[in-house]
């Protein structure tokens, strides 16, 4: 897509799953790509080398602890040293493992600490990241901001109350950001994915049960793949969606209707 050439994407959590698929999709379309990683610099560097070799674009990666959202400010300073402009920002990084203990589980087992961590990584991180992105987009005449979400706030998913509630919250924050950033020619939307077959989903203790349920519910009779969300992201960052802001696009294989 010619309209992506000469522009720059910054996405949080770009080394695996949905984030990695988006990095490759935008690079293939001609955009320079910046992304964050949580721990593995080697993995990030491998992606940089592969993307630059395949698509002839510039790529850089930055370490970010999503549980400390204010460090986005330091990361964006590094970004400024590497790139002259920012056109697209996608808030995608999530947390898992020990950080969500007390936040991932049945309602009666939820604990404030785990819930607070999910809020920090989902809502606070979106706010700080989007604020920093908007400052840079304003300098180039506008841009597009996306928060990745999930249908866990629309359809009951076992053990997902903590995440689902925060996805609902971030989708509301998207609407407020859209209302206030429109005057700067910055559009803000969300992409809500149904269960996607990634490492994060495979970490669910009932993964096989969830997978079977998704396949049974979907009219397309399959699980979603990370690449299934890239088209919606590219659409929201393209001129084809120039009058679309403050919305959530659901990409779920039809599972929320069943």
Automatic annotation (TrEMBL):
The keyword Oxidoreductase applies. It comes from the Bacteria. SUPFAM superfamilies: NAD(P)-binding Rossmann-fold domains. Coiled coil: none annotated. Keywords: Oxidoreductase. GO terms for molecular function: oxidoreductase activity, acting on CH-OH group of donors. Pfam families: adh_short_C2 (PF13561). InterPro entries: NAD(P)-bd_dom_sf (IPR036291), SDR_fam (IPR002347). Belongs to the short-chain dehydrogenases/reductases (SDR) family. This is Enoyl-ACP reductase.
